[in-house]
Structures are given as structure tokens and as C-alpha cells.
């Protein structure tokens, strides 16, 4: 009546070799996935910044039409908490003499993510040898204005450690806005 089979040990677990093998496999997978994840996050930041810039320009254009007066959206690079960030704001058009729309005005600026950089921008600048501020003005009909009439322009954004680009383009006399990416932003 006694069972002659040996009793199984009730202690179960993993051996040290199994734990090390799993740790190595997880490490290898993390090493492969991490760069892709960081690239994905940077592209998401870039897309968010592009949408924010597009909405800012669109807001200034709509305000100009609604209020039948000139409005502008200004962009600048400023130092905030020791980091250089791209900032923007919309406002009724102000004269750029001597420089109030760029660096001397402190209130109402909105900051993009600090990992976003301004690439090329071809709108009215602060006329410095290395401009740090720009503006886009719209007349009462929502048309983009320049010193020599109506103009087209592009704002190109980039992010750290990736080659992707995003841009907002004002493409015709009517001030049509569109978003583009990569090769279209050249």
C-alpha cells in the first residue's frame, strides 16, 4: 500500500543559467528597439510642433479676416531655463521699428518642445546678420504681406538626432496654407 515512486520536490524555480539567458535576450531586444522608439518619439514631437505652427499661422490669418485689420504671427528663438527654444505668438500687426515684435516683447510667447529646431525660414526677419526672429503678416483679406507685396514662404522644422523635416508653406497670393514633410520642405 505504500507508493514506491520517489516524491517530487516541491521546490521549483529557475536556475541561474536560465535567468542569465533571459536577461541577455531582453537586453539584446531592448538594444534593438530603443533607437526605433526614440526616433518614433522625435517624429511625434516634430509632427506636434508642425501642427502648432500651422494653427498659429492659421489663427493670425483668420483674425485678420474676422477683424478686417492686419495681424501677424511672430517666431523667435529664445533662451528659456538655459535652453534655446522656438517660440511663437499671434497679435495685431505692429511696426517692426525699432524691434518690438522680436526680442524686446516678453509677454504672450508660446514655446515649442525644446528638442525642435527651426530649419529654413524665409519670411520677414529682424535683419540681423544671423536672424533669430521672424514674422508673417496678413492683410484684412488674409493674404500674406511682405515689404514688396504678397509673398509665399516656408517654415521648416527639424528635431534632434533624426533627419526628418516638417514644414508649413504659404503657397500662393491668397495665403493658402499647407503642411509638408521631408523632400517637399527643401
Description:
This protein is an alpha+beta fold. The protein is built from one helix and eleven strands. Strands 1, 2, 3, 5, 6, 7 and 8 form a seven-stranded antiparallel sheet that branches. The chain has a four-stranded antiparallel sheet with strand order 4-9-10-11, covered by helices on one side.
| Number of discrete helical segments | 1
Largest sheet: 7 strands, antiparallel
Give the rounded overall mean pLDDT. 81
Q: Estimate percent helicity.
A: 25-40%
- Please state the overall shape, judged from the principal axes of the Cα atoms: rod-shaped
- The helix/strand series, from N terminus to C terminus, equals HEEEEEEEEEEE
SSE layout:
Layout lengths: L15 H52 L3 E10 L2 E10 L17 E2 L4 E6 L2 E2 L7 E6 L5 E3 L2 E2 L2 E7 L5 E6 L6 E5 L5
Antiparallel strand pairs: 1-2, 1-6, 2-3, 4-9, 5-6, 6-7, 7-8, 9-10, 10-11
Short description:
With 186 residues, the chain is α+β, with helices and mostly antiparallel strands. The protein has one helix and eleven strands. The model is unreliable at 97-104 (pLDDT under 50).
Features:
186 residues, 11 strands, alpha+beta, 7-stranded antiparallel beta sheet, 1 helix
Amino acid at each position: 500500500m505504500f507508493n514506491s515512486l520517489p516524491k517530487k520536490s516541491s521546490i521549483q524555480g529557475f536556475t541561474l543559467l536560465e535567468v542569465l539567458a533571459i536577461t541577455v535576450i531582453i537586453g539584446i531586444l531592448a538594444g534593438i528597439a530603443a533607437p526605433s522608439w526614440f526616433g518614433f518619439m522625435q517624429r511625434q514631437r516634430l509632427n506636434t510642433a508642425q501642427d502648432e505652427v500651422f494653427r498659429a499661422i492659421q489663427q493670425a490669418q483668420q483674425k485678420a479676416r474676422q477683424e478686417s485689420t492686419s495681424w501677424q504671427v511672430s517666431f523667435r528663438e529664445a533662451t528659456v531655463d538655459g535652453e534655446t527654444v522656438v517660440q511663437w505668438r499671434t497679435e495685431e500687426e505692429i511696426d517692426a521699428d525699432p524691434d518690438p515684435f522680436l526680442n524686446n516683447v516678453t509677454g504672450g510667447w508660446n514655446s515649442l518642445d525644446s528638442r525642435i529646431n527651426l530649419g529654413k525660414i524665409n519670411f520677414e526677419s529682424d535683419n540681423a546678420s544671423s536672424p533669430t526672429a521672424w514674422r508673417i503678416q496678413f492683410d484684412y483679406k488674409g493674404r500674406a504681406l511682405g515689404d514688396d507685396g504678397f509673398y509665399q514662404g516656408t517654415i521648416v522644422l527639424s528635431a534632434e538626432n533624426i533627419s526628418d523635416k516638417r514644414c508649413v508653406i504659404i503657397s500662393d497670393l491668397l495665403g493658402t496654407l499647407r503642411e509638408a514633410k521631408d523632400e517637399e520642405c527643401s
